[in-house]
Amino acid sequence: MLNVFARSSVSRVTDPVGAWLVRCGLTPNVVTVVGTTGTVLAALWFFPRGQLFVGTLVVTLFVLFDLLDGAMARAAGRGTPFGAVLDASCDRIADGALFGALAWWCFTGADNRPLAAAALVCLVAAQVISYVKARAEASGLSADGGLVERAERFIIALVGAGLSGLGVPWALDVALWLLAALSVATVVQRLVAVARSARESANGG
């Protein structure tokens, strides 16, 4: 949802940076891998140790790399099929690391099994949301949209983690339970969208 409304505004900032990185000789694939590696390492290092605020800052820094690889591809005037697959695969790895690390902290640091369960629901739902779209598109169907796409998932989770790291009570609890509910709803929304697309395709629409 946020992607639709914010993409043009974000592009005005990221496109010049992406063009500069291309002129420096970097490729979108390198930026994708660096951003994902940094996100994974930061999430798995800081969050399980209970360093939620610092972890949020560092993860957010590396997540911004995800905005730059697309800008670099546009600046270079082309994207590649491999780059698209690499980007999607790295997104799933980063999603898993973020919510896995938060679940780890909920189990061990906070000793809060219900909250850990919410984090795991977020992790699984994030993978399913993306898989439904990818599988639908591979079948020639449409499964766009939904309440929470990747941008919303990261914003809600990181805001909750950051505020919790600053000592705001229940911030992470509210964020993860809200995100779990919205993510499950998004899975249902996308499946409904696929069913509608399949009916339209069968009817020649």
Automatic annotation (TrEMBL):
Entry's EC annotation: 2.7.8.-
Binding locations of a CDP-1,2-diacyl-sn-glycerol: 29-32, 70, 74, 80
GO CC entries: plasma membrane
Transmembrane stretches, start-end: 20-46, 52-72, 154-171, 177-195
Residues the entry annotates as binding Mg(2+) 1: 66, 69, 87
Catalytic reaction equation(s): 1,2-di-(9Z-octadecenoyl)-sn-glycero-3-cytidine-5'-diphosphate + 1D-myo-inositol 3-phosphate = 1,2-di-(9Z-octadecenoyl)-sn-glycero-3-phospho-(1D-myo-inositol-3-phosphate) + CMP + H(+); a CDP-1,2-diacyl-sn-glycerol + 1D-myo-inositol 3-phosphate = a 1,2-diacyl-sn-glycero-3-phospho-(1D-myo-inositol-3-phosphate) + CMP + H(+)
Record's subcellular location: Cell membrane
Amino-acid positions noted as binding Mg(2+) 2 in the UniProt annotation, renumbered to this chain: 66, 87, 91
Top-level division of the source organism's lineage: Bacteria
UniProt entry keywords in alphabetical sequence: Cell membrane, Lipid biosynthesis, Lipid metabolism, Magnesium, Membrane, Metal-binding, Phospholipid biosynthesis, Phospholipid metabolism, Transferase, Transmembrane, Transmembrane helix
Primary localization class, coarse: membrane
Any single GO BP term: phospholipid biosynthetic process
EC main group: transferase
Keyword Cell membrane on entry: yes
Cofactor comment: Contains a di-nuclear catalytic Mg(2+) center.
Active site, per annotation: 91 (proton acceptor)
Record GO terms (molecular function): magnesium ion binding; phosphotransferase activity, for other substituted phosphate groups
Cofactor: Mg(2+)
Pathway in which this enzyme or protein is active: Lipid metabolism; Phospholipid metabolism; phosphatidylinositol phosphate biosynthesis
UniProt keyword Transferase present: yes
Family, as annotated: Belongs to the CDP-alcohol phosphatidyltransferase class-I family.
HAMAP family per UniProt: PIP_synthase (MF_02241)
Function description: Catalyzes the conjugation of the 1'-hydroxyl group of D-myo-inositol-3-phosphate (also named L-myo-inositol-1-phosphate) with a lipid tail of cytidine diphosphate diacylglycerol (CDP-DAG), forming phosphatidylinositol phosphate (PIP) and CMP. PIP is a precursor of phosphatidylinositol (PI) which is an essential lipid required for cell wall formation.
Quaternary structure annotation from Swiss-Prot or TrEMBL: Homodimer.
Protein's recorded name: Phosphatidylinositol phosphate synthase
Species the sequence originates in: Streptoalloteichus hindustanus
